[in-house]
Amino acid sequence: MSTGKRYDEDFKRTLVDLYHNGKTQVSLVKEYGVSQTALSKWIKQYSTVETEDGEVLTARQIKELQQRNARLEEENLILKKAIAIFTPHSDKD
Q1: DSSP assignment of 76-93, as one string?
Q2: Contact 39, 28 (CB under 8 A)
């Protein structure tokens, strides 16, 4: 049976914002009664990165993009192999 508390997205994001604005993880853990593990996970999950074109992405969005990229690369490789199989080769090759 899980004894962990459930926190809503706004609460998690608020703590991450406080962390990025100078609060330490130790002080946030003490003040808000969350576990160090949970806070570290939220910081990783909700921290953002700004791209060259000004788009702001979360770690979750970056991970999703990496997964999508890997899937597309795999599909591309499969298609290349299929083309090689089904394209007739001339005797001059």
Answers
A1: HHHHHHHHHHHSPPPTT-
A2: yes
9: left (phi over 0), alpha (psi -120 to 50) or beta: alpha
Close Cβ partners of 28 (under 8 Å, ≥ 6 residues apart): 15, 18, 19, 34, 39
pTM surpassing 0.70? Answer: no
Residue with structure tokens 């808000």?
Answer: 32
Domain ranges for the chain, please list them.
7-46, 59-87
Q: What are the pLDDT digits (tens) for 54-70? A: 999 988 888 899 999 99
Give the C-alpha separation, 87 to 24, whole Å.
61
